[in-house]
Amino acid sequence: MKLLHMVSFILVVVGGVNWALVALFDTNLVTMLFGSIPGLVTLVYVLIGVGALYLAYEHKNVCTYCSGKKK
Questions:
Q1: What's the domain range around 47?
Q2: Is residue 67 situated within a structural domain?
Q3: Total structural domains in the chain?
Q4: pLDDT 10s digits, 10-34
């Protein structure tokens, strides 16, 4: 499950950076990289969304602050 968590985290960070680029510079990184393959662009967005849902679902179990396991 640690691998799934790390992959989800990376996908969510990529999604967040992409949205920042869209907002600040009107540049969509995902479309720039994979725009010639529309199905791949859609797949990347779906994976980012699934990663975000997974992190939201598992957050309380892995977050030391929310679970009460503060260091």
A1: 2-62
A2: no
A3: 1
A4: 999 999 999 999 999 999 999 999 9
